[in-house]
Amino acid sequence: MSESATPSSHTPRPGGTTPLPRGDAHDLAALLGPVLLRVTEGRLGPISWFRSAHQRGGAATGFSTWQLPNGSTTPALVKLPIGPVEHRWTTSLGTCDPAQWNERWSMAIPTPRVLASGTDLGGYDLAWLVVERLTGAGLPQTLDEETGLDLLRAAADFQAAAMKAAPLGPRPASPDWDRTLERVRELIRADAFPEASRWGELIRKVRRALPILQHRWESRPINAWCHGDLHPGNAIRRVAPDGDDPAGRHGCVLIDLALVHPGHWVEDALYLERQYWGHEKQLGLKPVPTLARLRRERGLPADDSYGDLAMVRRVLMAACAPALLDREGNPKYLRAALEIMERCLPQAVR
Predict the structure, then answer these.
(1) Residue 76: phi, psi to the nearest 5?
(2) How far apart are CA 35 and CA 331, in angstroms?
(3) Is the peptide bond preceding residue 331 cis, with omega within 30 degrees of 0?
(4) Backbone CA torsion sign across 132, 136, 142, 148
(5) What whole-number distance in Å separates Cα of residue 276 and Cα of residue 279?
């Protein structure tokens, strides 16, 4: 592939690329920024690189502008280097004709719209993106019912668009639940967190039931492309130039597509639900039945057995919570996981 600024998918050139130099991504951005400006043939404006405290991974990110075919400019966001999953899905779902940038259908795309992309730059094997800069507000951490609906509408729209964009991939590998539960048991023995004896009793029950739980989870239908990281921090509102709401639903856009994977649609709903374990009052709706309803409204499958599958997944996630305490837990979260395990285990194995 030659260096390109067209919003389309690309295949790597046979030869001609070299591995990325080691070092900070922002040093790389400073090195390749002038190359990107040349490749985009004057449509990309000057880039102001910045560091984000919330950014995952090692990409450099910069603010810029992009000149549309009618001569006007629109705010743009530059990212490089990015991983293959994020590149694939951002370009697959966000590609649109810049000449139709402000059309209603374009403004309703549930992911960032792509202005330019490529998979090599300046001779380096490097994927990069220029996408719209979303200037609307991010979603608050506390979700009332309407804001939660905005987020889950975007998730349902994402799942619908992804199903049209690509056939489902193979069943993903399951986590090593037994090994993680063994780690939890070690933490319990070390008395590393409150209510260790209560945890110990429940973990013994979960381990005895693990063959049933694993079978039920691993035999789930693979019926969706899941976003994989659904929470308020990964959603931003899209505001039209005239302040209109062309999507008819507050223009909520999902960002950060690096964890998209094939799975069961309930995984996205449970991922959101789990963020609020121990803080349920900050979540103004029930994600699982709400996403089921929104999928049906879009003609996507959501059979009545999803509730049983959700119970199985809740038990597995709750049982593994102590092993993840260092990066995503707190005492309230652990207490909620304990209560969820007690409540859901009998239903998950019946």
Answers:
(1) -135, 160
(2) 49
(3) no
(4) negative
(5) 5
Residue 54 burial (10 A CB sphere; 0-12, 13-18, 19+)? exposed
Domains and CATH numbers, the chain: 25-132 (3.30.200), 145-349 (3.90.1200.10)
**Three-state DSSP string of the chain:** CCCCCCCCCCCCCCCCCECCCCCCHHHHHHHHHHHHHHHCCCCECCCEEECCCCCCCCCEEEEEEEECCCCCEEEEEEEEEECHHHHHHHHHHHECCHHHCCCHHHHCCCCCCEEEEEEEECCEEEEEEEEECCCCCECCCCECHHHHHHHHHHHHHHHHHHHHHCCCCCCCCCCCHHHHHHHHHHHHHCCCCCCHHHHHHHHHHHHHHHHHHHHHHHCCCCCEEECCCCCHHHEEECCCCCCCCCCCCCCEEECCCCCCEEECCHHHHHHHHHCCCCCHHHECCCHHHHHHHHHHHCCCCCCCCHHHHHHHHHHHHHHHHHHHHHHHCCHHHHHHHHHHHHHHHHHHHC
- Please report where in the chains the tokens 């040349």 appear, as a residue: 38
Q: What is the CA radius of gyration of the chain?
A: 22
Structure tokens at 16: 């001609």
Token pair of 45 as six digits: 């404006």
What percent of the chain has a predicted confidence (pLDDT) above 70? 87
Q: What is the pTM of this model?
A: 0.89
Q: Counting beta carbons within 10 angstroms of the beta carbon of residue 273, is it exposed (0 to 12), middle (13 to 18) or buried (19 or more)?
A: buried
Q: Are strands 224-226 and 261-263 parallel, antiparallel or unpaired?
A: antiparallel
Least confident of 1-5, 47-51, 223-227, 307-311: 1-5
Name the β-bridge partners of 74.
Answer: 66
pLDDT in tens, 189-202: 988 778 989 999 99
In contact, 159 and 295? CB cutoff 8 Å: yes
CA atoms within a 13 Å half-sphere pointing along the CA-CB vector of 67: 10
Provide the token pair at 208: 């005895």
